[in-house]
Amino acid sequence: MLVSLEWLKEYVQIQDLTPAQLAEKITRSGIEVDAVIDRANGMEKVVVGHVVSKEKHPEADKLNICQVDVGEESLQQIICGAPNVDAGQKVIVARPGAHLPGGIKIKKAKLRGHESNGMICSLQELGIEGKLVPKAYAEGIYVLPADTEVGSDALALLGLRDTVLELGLTPNRSDALSMLGVAYEVGAILSAEVTYPTATYTTSSEKAQDVLQLRVEDTTANPMYVAKVVKNVKIAESPRWLQNRLMAAGIRPHNNVVDVTNYILMEYGQPLHAFDYDSLATGEIVVRKAAEGEKITTLDDQERTLKATDLVITNGKEPVAIAGVMGGANSEVTESTTTVVIESAYFDGLTVRQTSRHLGLRSDSSARFEKGVDPNRVLAAADRAAALLAELAGGEVLEGMCIVDELDKAPARVVVSPDFINERLGMKISLEEMLSILERLKFDVEAANGLLIIDAPTRRQDIKIEEDIVEEIARLYGYDEIPMTLPEGANQAGSLTAYQATRRVVRNFMEGAGLYQAVTYSLTSEALSQRFALKAESVTRLLMPMSEERSTLRQSLIPHLIEAAAYNVARQADGVALYEIGSVFLGQSAEGQPYEEEHVAAVLTGKWLDHAWQGEKKAVDFFVLKGIVEGVVGKLGLTERISFVKAEVDGLHPGRTASILLDGTQVGIIGGLHPAEQKAWGVKDTYVMEMNLVALLQAVTEEAPLSYTAVPRFPAMSRDIALIMNRATPAGEVLAVIEKAGVKLLKDVHVFDVYEGDKMEAGKKSVAFSLTYFDPERTLTDEEVVAAHTKVLKAIATIEGTEVR
């Protein structure tokens, strides 16, 4: 909400406070002021000029040489490139020495050999956003009324010697979505009275009900509808003061009729709509629910398809507006309009919100109806609009109105005791101070039998319960005045649960291994929701998703991690290593909600090592990521219980994919992206991993005992074995056979070479193992090592298709 202080002063006296001081007081009372905007922005030497003559620049087709009267003895020559500049216009002139927004300093200059003493300005050049400039002047300079005084201060004329407060409102404070609402708030803060605008006008003898019939079919969704008729209006530009106030409030001026409805919207917080009476054609307004699939073209020239839950305003035959959201193009006010129907209504906030959401169409009107408007301002706003149309458009207001009124306008009553308030605040505020605060807020209050009986004004839709009164008294009394106290009672130092502490071990290891933590969306598209899932179950869709890309709860962390990696690769990152610890959502629990399970996942792509000094470079591969997984399970003390088994997973490379097993049960997957998948994501060799973190951490039943290995005092002896084996036989299977051979002296065995070249028999491969024999108590003899090694070789001989080279 943008609040012009010059406009605000029309309703409440803000004393001698500076804008910054007033903003501080408003913020301390509970409504945050996000910005204090000086509309003049330090500008000076900007005056009104009169273009006496205009000639084409001899050296530039798009430039004009203008002789401009700026209130001095002689005319000033100014070169102007605006397409709409012309002789006889009153314009805005920045004199030499003026400073304009954007760091522009105006100087005397020569343009193509001709002197220019200033600049004829557009509104944009004065710092007004292009979207707020009237369309007639959007592409050129701004032309002032013919009776504007030459040499006068253009900034004052345009309302730019003003300060605007930008309020950051919470949804419950819909009352402050209007100038009057802000005036009541400021009045309560400063103990000042609020002046209410008047609405006086003369009506004709003709009655509104003689020319317009009104029927509301759904009074639950539309309990109050007021229609006033104004004849003989003359469509024109609004007066300067009205345009200035609308632009200060962030609204573009259109014409006097539309501008009046927008002015009332900002002043009262009551949305209005103006219909061209002749375009209605039937002389009838019927408010009803839309037919399923019914269509309407709205004021933004977009055709909208309606649902049966939408409320529409019709002429008895076809929709002419979507209730509370936007009017229809078939009934808008145009330059030829002579008779206007003013609509002021109370629409159910839930109905408006549902319509606005499914149409993807939000407006200033829908925002106010959704949060709640003051039921006692519906009629007052219509009267105020009628008065302004009579004054500014020369309209003739017909007597009476068409009205349907089944709206409850009674104020909310709250009964609360002063003791309840003081107990909640932890302090002692006197009854007199409480009464004073409530009266400043314009609440009707009575103290009786130790209770406060309060009738909140209907503009304050957020006042419903006792705690609301406590908040009102606290914020006006001053949050700074509430004493600081320490909590009393027994307390206990906080600590991490065993699960949290172990999860932190995993996180620390992943980061220590060189991976960066990522946090991705829990919502994804239905197509990606089960992609790479460890166990695919029924998906959970949102009832009202923001978009199809965020419509379904994920069942795997991998897709969004790949997306993050692809995003970085597209921005020239030569290596990406990310991990995420987050939840996936599987099936449904007994309560009907999806079962939430925490997983850990990682993605690696590009370079893994790049040591320029040592000349060492290494790209990521399957074994880099496998080593990280082994490091994680090693930290958790689960190395002996984890195994890797070749697997096939849709989207992963068939020869570089494995299931991760915990005690024989799958808890994860690891593998490289399939080439087709890499092409689709726009990445090269990329490897991913995901594990069920809950299963892993539940397997860690107790803290692993501290263990160490003494520095060896005796030498170890090693033997290498090269085996010819079936290409389909995993090296890990042979490794397990060697380890299970039961040779006590064998302390370590690992693969150090694999060969599958042309010199090997088809279907075969050569795998070389290194075995280390060691006794911590003595030096081994050759005979002991030979005996142990022979036992290993006998165990290997039992493996089908395997022989020693």
Compact description:
The chain is built from 21 helices and 43 strands. The strands form 11 sheets. Strands 30, 33, 34, 35, 36, 37, 38 and 39 form an 8-stranded mixed β-sheet that branches. Strands 3, 4, 5, 6, 11 and 12 form a 6-stranded antiparallel β-sheet that branches. Strands 14, 16, 17, 24, 25 and 26 form a 6-stranded mixed β-sheet that branches. Strand 28 and strand 29 form a beta hairpin.
Oligomer designation:
single chain
Give the count of helical stretches. 21
How many structural domains does the protein architecture include?
6
Shape: elongated
**Average of per-residue pLDDT values:** 92
Structural class: alpha+beta
- Give helix % range: 25-40%
Distance between the termini: 83 Å
CATH topology of the largest domain: Phenylalanyl-tRNA Synthetase, Chain B, domain 3
CA radius of gyration is 39 Å
CATH H-level homologous superfamily name of the largest domain: Phenylalanyl-trna Synthetase, Chain B, domain 3
Would you report the number of β strands? 43
CATH architecture level-2 label of the largest domain: 3-Layer(bba) Sandwich
Organism: Lysinibacillus piscis
Domain FDX-ACB: 712-805
Catalytic activity: tRNA(Phe) + L-phenylalanine + ATP = L-phenylalanyl-tRNA(Phe) + AMP + diphosphate + H(+)
Domain B5: 409-484
